[in-house]
Amino acid sequence: MDERFDDLESRITLQEDMIDELNKTVYRQQIRIDLLETAITELTKRFFESENRNQDVRMPHEKPPHY
User: Fold this and answer.
1) Which has the higher per-residue pLDDT, 64 or 5?
2) 34, 37, 14: which is closest to 26 by C-alpha?
3) How far apart are CA 51 and CA 37, in angstroms?
């Protein structure tokens, strides 16, 4: 009987360690996702600002380069 309890305690300890490690991994991934979302938002904003500046420079009678 004691052997079974020891085995269960060992399994529980291993599972708790694994859950703790998984939680840490999920936390690190969430931080990385947040940073990537911020970077994408910033790049998108810069892209549209750049597009707006390029359109302002073109003369009204000029055709866009793809024509």
Assistant:
1) 5
2) 34
3) 21
